[in-house]
Amino acid sequence: MNTVNLLILVCTVYVALLFLVAFVAERSAMRGRGRWLRSPMVYTLSLSIYCTAWTFYGAVGYAARSGLEYITIYLGPTIVMIGWWWVLRKLVRVGRAQRVTSIADLISARFGKSNLLAVGVTILAVVGTTPYIALQLQSVTLSFASFADAVGQPGPGDGARASTALWVAMGLALFTVLFGTRNLDANERHHGVVMAIAVEAVVKLVALLAVGVFVVWGLSGGVNETLARIDASKIGNWQMDGGRWAALTFLSAAACLCLPRMFQVMVVENADEAHLRTASWAFPGYLLLMSLFVVPIAVMGLERLPEGANPDLFVLTLPLAEGQTALAIFSFLGGFSSATSMVIVAALALATMVSNHMVMPLWLRWTGGRASVSGDVRHVVLLSRRISIAGVVALGYVYYRTTGGGAALASIGLVSFAGVAQVLPVMIGGLYWRGATRLGALAGLSVGFGLWGYALFLPSLGGGIMPQDILANGPLGIAWLRPQALFGIEGLDPLVHAVLWSLLLNALTFFTVSLATFPTPLERLQGAQFVNVLNQAGSARSWSAGAAQAEDLMVMAQRILGAPEAQAFFEQEAERQSGRAVRPGALPEPNPDFLQRLERELSGSVGAATAHAMVAQIVGGASVSVRELLAVADETAQMIEYSDRLEAQSKELAATAAKLREANDKLTRLSVQKDAFLSQISHELRTPMTSIRAFSEILRDTADVSPEEQRKYSSIIHDESVRLTRLLDDLLDLSVLENGQVNLNIRQGDLREALDKAVSAAAAEGDAGLRVLREDAAAPIRLETDFDRLGQVFINLIANARKYCDAAAPELRITTRPLSDGQVQVDFVDNGSGIPLEARDLIFEKFARASPQRAGGAGLGLSICRQIMERLGGAVDYLPSERNAHFRVTLPATAAAARPARGKPKLTN
Amino acid sequence: MSDRPRHLFVERQTYRRRRLQDAARFLPVLGIVLMMVPLLWSEGAEGVTMSGAVIYLFLIWAALVAAAMVLSLYLRDDRSEPEDSPPESRREAGR
Predict the structure, then answer these.
(1) A83 in contact with B at a CB cutoff of 8 Å?
(2) Measured by CB atoms within 10 angstroms of the end CB, which terminus of chain B is less buried, N or C?
(3) Starting at the edge strand that comes first in sequence, how are the strands of the sheet with A811-818 ordered?
(4) Do residues A188 and A36 touch, judged by C-beta distance below 8 A?
């Protein structure tokens, strides 16, 4: 078997092993036996994806070219890690509290869940990472090719070289899809992937150490000899560009925080914050070991290998040249591990961002948000993430093929670092400064991204993408806009120059625009959550925490109580606390007293338990997400609105029911009255009929009736017949009036005369116990109406007064008065006690009698009066009065002024 | 929280813990300063040798790792202790 085939075999076995490790890890995590998967050491090792093939191979090449400068790439992360108490602790806490899924998600969540920002960061990450993925593919291809060259076996042949990259890319995409999108874990944790990259971390460290040990003790003969060789080599003297030293340290520190793949393993995959404590020293230690033998290998490579050898591949070619094939294969595996682990995590991180912030929003828009079933979305998210992974890896491959894998790629590492470092000002500002706004972040990122592209990325691509003319003279010949000498400052290293200007102007724009703009409520709330995340979790509470909570409470209270009410309540509380009037919008300090009152106020709307839970969540710092809290508040607001509507409806129903009950009562009373009337009328008819029958029988059957008795009996019969006739007349009259078949005899006449007639007629009918007083209008009132009918009404009213007035000396006062609108008013007021309240709405109904115990008639009089007055175009009403019975007759003076007659009598008055 | 006066002095144990946190905050500053020392070195043939630079950098690197390890052992569970108010008053404030 030739060596190249052996290498291919070993690689295949190694890849199969990685699949197996990932599979076993997933299985045990699924069965809940995955505690060992989440040890601090695994976390630390997973951080090692910071060391890519670029650092595995490239560090030695870097050292061979520029001495110790390579070490800055490791010093930056070292400082970030040992300084975990400053930034990382907060970053990881925020990431866990807010359930962040990527760095784009973090920035978006901080600035009010702005998807625009997330898309911006995603584009930045894709642009910065794609060349880096291409670089990894290149390193695998290159190392494979040089391995084949060195052992003198062409292996698969030149044509197949390019396909190496394709096979690797496809394998990586498959692995990432398999283990990166197995499930939609709420916290975006991927046990299989993390475990595999931890194994790869061990492999690449041991491989590099093995080569180093071989070089120092096998080739050089010991530590002292190695040091002597270092001093004797061409990099033996200290040479350093100070600007680059500082800038690169800073850049690598920034990249450690901002690289999407670093963020993925450091924040998203973090299972326990305590792991960070271990990683704070273990990861710098790992980096130290990774870089320990870089200089000896570089020096030995320069010494032993021929002049034209590529220093980037010394790690591989040095053992090969010394005949150590096994070591070389191991070293190849180390480089392979570095490349693959980077591509896997980068593809996973980028795919999460692309899928969450670009594909899903677009999909939801296209489908019009139909996806309300959760399983539906879940499936689509997984699919979109899988496609995104394939897309990201494919993008890297296409980039590798189009750039031809030339030297331009080699410098892309630092360019990429500088690109993702543009997120740093916004991220740090968002974590520590509550005044940072969405617009500020957008402006800062745009400026930084633009300057980075203009001054570093485009020139670094070479190959005519940025014309030479612009590089030398600036666009349109404007010298101070030259990409590598902005504002006329020349002589700086292009990288330092671009980093300086882009980050400086990025931060400045971010700061200035943030100062000038005003954040939305959600931004302010999120800002408070981010900046105070350490306090919320239960440690010290500073004065700023108080202000933050008051603001959070305010937002919550507004959602539940409504904006004006909540503002009024908070202002009132602020006044109570300060003891004087406060400016509008002032917030009270959330002391227990205020919280208790707020809770009471809220519990009126949502119930005590919920109110307590909500206040406690803000004040007590339970790590519930703001989105959830706001969702609860919205739901509550809807519930309140709904219950308000229900309340209004039930009030309406109650009112209708009361009306119905009233009507029913009235009908019942009418029915009782009618029954009473029927029995009354039977009685009324029966009494005269009995006497008529009795006296007519006497007259028929008795022979000797004296003429005197005869006359007496027949007059009784006559009187009783008259009574019967009158009763029947009344009934007929009413029936005729109600059916509208009455013929009116309209003529001209004087009101006074009509009243005179009525008074005398009424007086003729009964005893003269009632005194009638007249108060007529000064001028005689001329009327055009049916005087017979009108007289009937007057007589009835006077007769009523006589019958029912219960005063000792009964009096009736009749007043006439012409009205301005052509109407005439006649008032009948007696000095009796009036009609009882409960009987007032019935007296005008048929069969109604105010007081049955004084049953003088059949109860048809007033009913007939009302019917007559309606026919005449007027009205008769009872005026409620304290002491007296007061009837008022209103009628038009002329037929023309008559009101339109009402149709049927209404049920209610 | 606000209606009670803050404690002016804390227990000895809490005091120690806070100084440890200060040390953790100070360590990266120290690291940056030490890492930037090479900027002061003279260059060229008569300057610092490469082996000297390597030894210096890796020694301070190892020292920083060791210091961070010691600190991390003492900074176990930073959440259990409040920094400036006794636990019971904090719990009250949360009501």
Answers:
(1) yes
(2) C
(3) A771-775, A811-818, A823-830, A886-892, A875-878
(4) no
Q: Does A788 touch chain B (CB under 8 A)?
A: no
Closest of A814, A823, A829 to residue A872, by C-alpha: A823
Domain definitions of chain B by residue range: 12-78
Choose between A158 and A663: higher pLDDT. Answer: A663
* Cα dihedral value A778, A783, A786, A787, nearest 10: 30
* Burial classification of residue B14, based on how many CB atoms lie within 10 Å of its CB (0-12 exposed, 13-18 middle, 19 or more buried): middle
- Distance between start and end Cα atoms, chain B: 11
H or E stretch at A747:
strand A747-750
B49 DSSP 8-state letter: B
What is the Cα–Cα distance from A126 to A399, expressed in whole angstroms?
A: 12
Contact A277 B76 (CB under 8 A): yes
A571/chain B closest Cα distance in angstroms? 19
Q: How many CA atoms lie within 13 A of A792 on its CB side?
A: 20
A257 falls within a domain: yes
State how far the Cα of A173 lies from the Cα of A772, in Å rounded to an integer: 115
* Same domain, yes or no: A250 and A329: yes
The ipTM value here is 0.80
Contacts of A600 (CB under 8 A, 6+ apart): A611
Of the residues A276, A541, A578, the best mutation for testing chain B's interface (the one with the most B CB atoms within 10 Å of its CB) is: A541
Q: Are residues A611 and A670 in the same domain?
A: no
For residue A537, the chain B residue with the least C-alpha distance is B79
Domain range holding A872?
743-897
> A247: domain CATH number?
1.20.1730.10
Note the pLDDT tens digit of each residue in B5-23. 455 666 777 788 888 888 8
Nearest by CB to B27, from A67, A83, A89: name it: A83
Tell me how close the Cα of B47 comes to any Cα of chain A, in angstroms.
Answer: 7
Q: Which chain B residue shows the shortest CA-CA distance from A66?
A: B50
Residue A742: Cβ-neighbour burial (10 angstroms; 0-12, 13-18, 19+): middle
Residue B57: which of A68, A84, A540 has the nearest Cβ? A68
Q: DSSP secondary structure string, A67-115?
A: GGGGGHHHHHHHHHHHTTTTTHHHHHHHHHHTT--SHHHHHHHHTTT-H
> Tens digit of pLDDT for each residue in A58-83?
888 888 888 888 888 899 999 999 98
Class of residue A669 by CB neighbours under 10 A (exposed 0-12, middle 13-18, buried 19+):
middle
- The answer to whether A277 and B72 have CB atoms below 8 angstroms apart is yes
Structural domain total, chain A: 5
**What CATH number is associated with residue A664?**
1.10.287.130
